[in-house]
């Protein structure tokens, strides 16, 4: 499914706003509509735009608006817009209030780009599942909300993963492998499947190789370098 989700960035520091723009547009399926630097400008944009954004990246610390007032103003008037808070605010009251108000996620600055990317990928999955289905199974809901089972579960969790490897994405890649045939998948193909960069896809693939979940196989063509494909280890062993 090919769809671009529109994003409005509300960030008082124009340099930070530009960095956030670059991060957003590196993730396949997202396009920044605009960046605004004040609460007044944010509300003016929303009031006058012909098409509302799908998603707002909202800083809580905005000079012309006190606390979470801007958040509640947007939520009250534009309840159909999803919100991800991206802020330096760490107060429990702020976190609790915004989650009660229905935010999709809360990201504390300065943040890891990988964490930011995973949130956008999860949001994309969330939206696509809602638009493609009339009903969702518990498993599908768990994946969308980022539900993590206890550490003694067979499901991969964040407790035993290295930095840069997210359990939600990893489980999604495992699911894709089970659906693929014996030819496996390349890093380029996987990056298109999960909507991320080739380097990110390769990082996950090499991690799965390191824990003996998958194997690599070189496919030699008539010209050029051999193609590096990744296949499930059990499939690889069956065909040796």
Give a short summary of the structure.
This protein has helices at residues 14-26, 39-48, 69-77, 92-100, 113-132, 138-145, 167-179, 187-194, 198-210, 233-238; strands at 5-10, 30-36, 55-58, 82-87, 105-108, 214-219, 227-232. It has 240 residues and is an alpha/beta fold. The strands form two sheets. The protein has a five-stranded parallel beta sheet with strand order 2-1-3-4-5, sandwiched between helices. Strands 6-7 form a two-stranded antiparallel sheet.
Task: Outline the structure in words.
This is Transcriptional regulator. The modification 4-aspartylphosphate is found at residue 59. InterPro entries: 2C-system_Tx_regulators, CheY-like_superfamily, DpiA-like_HTH, Sig_transdc_resp-reg_cit/mal, Sig_transdc_resp-reg_receiver, WH_DNA-bd_sf. With 240 residues, this protein is an alpha/beta fold. 45% of the residues lie in helices and 16% in strands. Strand 4 (82-87), helix 4 and strand 5 (105-108) form a beta-alpha-beta unit. Helix 5 (113-132) packs antiparallel against helix 6 and helix 8 (187-194) crosses helix 9 (198-210). The protein is elongated. Residues 150-155 and 236-240 have low confidence and may be disordered.
Quick tags:
240 residues; alpha/beta; Rossmann fold; Arc Repressor Mutant, subunit A; 2 domains; five-stranded parallel beta sheet; two-stranded antiparallel sheet; 45% helix; disordered C terminus; Sig_transdc_resp-reg_cit/mal; cytoplasm; 2C-system_Tx_regulators; transcription regulation; phosphoprotein
Largest sheet data: 5 strands, parallel
How many β-strands, per DSSP? Answer: 7
Report helical residue fraction: 40-55%
Strand content: 15-25%
CATH topology description of the largest domain = Rossmann fold
Order of secondary-structure elements: EHEHEHEHEHHHHHEEH
- What is the total domain count? 2
Radius of gyration: 20 Å
């Amino acid at each position: 499914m090919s769809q671009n989700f529109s994003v409005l960035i509300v960030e008082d520091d124009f340099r930070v706003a530009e960095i956030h723009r670059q991060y957003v547009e590196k993730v396949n399926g997202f396009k920044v509509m605009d960046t605004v630097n004040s609460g007044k400008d944010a509300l003016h944009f929303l009031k006058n735009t012909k098409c509302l954004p799908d998603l707002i990246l909202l800083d809580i610390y905005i000079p012309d608006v006190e606390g979470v007032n801007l958040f509640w103003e947007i939520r009250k008037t534009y309840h159909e817009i999803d919100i991800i808070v991206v802020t330096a605010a760490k107060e429990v009251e702020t976190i609790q209030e915004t989650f009660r108000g229905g935010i999709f996620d809360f990201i504390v600055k300065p943040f890891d780009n990988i964490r930011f990317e995973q949130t956008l990928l999860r949001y994309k999955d969330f939206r696509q599942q809602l638009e493609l289905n009339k009903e969702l199974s518990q498993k599908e809901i768990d994946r969308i909300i980022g539900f993590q089972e206890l550490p003694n579960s067979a499901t991969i969790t964040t407790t035993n993963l290295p930095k840069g490897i997210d359990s939600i994405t990893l489980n999604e890649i495992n699911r894709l492998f089970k659906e693929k045939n014996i030819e496996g998948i390349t890093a380029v193909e996987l990056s298109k499947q999960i909507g991320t960069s080739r380097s990110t896809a390769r990082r996950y693939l090499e991690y799965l190789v390191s824990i003996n979940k998958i194997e690599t196989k070189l496919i030699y063509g008539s010209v050029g370098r051999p193609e590096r494909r990744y296949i499930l280890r059990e499939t690889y062993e069956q065909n040796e």
